[in-house]
Amino acid sequence: MKALITRKIGMTSITAEDGGVAAVTLLSASDNVVTQLKNTESDGYQAVQLGFEESKKLSKSLLGHLKPAKMNAKVTREIRVDEIPEELKVGEKISADLFSVGDKVDAVGTSKGKGFAGTIKRHNFHRGRKTHGGRSYRRPGSIGSMYPQKIFKGKKMSGHMGDERVTVKNLNIALVDNENNVIGVYGAIPGPKKGVVVLKGTA
């Protein structure tokens, strides 16, 4: 199982082997702790729950849940697996050296929230003409005809944009700094600075 909860630091650029400049996203990858192991018999599926960073304020139920792992995790994430490694135990620490340069990973994060957005910004609609009597510049235009006298769910319209789970697949690890607990990934990763990102090895 290759998975790690990280926090986005920001972006920079490095010189690649071919001499070109490549964009890299830096992630803070302090130690993760295994907080729970789920199996088919008791839970109906197999998964590993990881905890990340320490919190001073947790509810009693969470404190009880995290007691076997001996940490008060601020962030927890569950990673589904086909098979749980035998050597993996609750309370075990997983660090940045789990990954190495050249590994392919999937990055899962929450995209930046953009608030209420119109159809041009949200769905890349064309604007209306600004000449020859055109009065409709940024309106969505017709959203239905006489039949079926209603709007189908999922119709592309104005509304809340961003702030949703996004997965970017097949990214390459550019650098791993075990001393400073930093992982660099080629390309962009969803979310703002300080956003939580889950790195998973590609299947």
Topology:
Layout: E1 3-15, E2 21-28, E3 32-38, H1 40-43, E4 47-54, H2 60-66, E5 73-80, E6 93-94, E7 104-110, E8 115-117, H3 119-123, E9 159-161, E10 165-177, E11 182-186, E12 196-201
Antiparallel strand pairs: 1-2, 1-12, 2-11, 3-4, 3-6, 4-5, 7-10, 7-12, 8-9, 10-11
If strands are numbered along the chain, what order do they take across the biggest sheet? Answer: 1-2-11-10-7-12
Which fold name fills CATH's third level, the topology of the largest domain? Elongation Factor Tu (Ef-tu), domain 3
What is the overall number of helices? 3
**Can you give the helix content as a percent range?**
under 10%
Gyration radius, in Å: 22 Å
CATH superfamily descriptor of the largest domain: Translation factors
Please write the CATH class name of the largest domain: Mainly Beta
List how many beta strands DSSP finds.
12
Oligomer: single chain
- What percent of residues are in strands? 35-45%
Cα distance, first to last residue?
Answer: 10 Å
CATH architecture of the largest domain, please?
Beta Barrel
What spatial form do the alpha-carbon principal axes imply?
globular
Number of domains: 2
Poorly predicted residue ranges: none
Query: Order of SSEs, N→C?
Result: EEEHEHEEEEHEEEE
The largest β sheet comes out as: 6 strands, antiparallel, barrel
Briefly note the structural class of the backbone.
Answer: mainly beta
**What number is the mean pLDDT?**
92
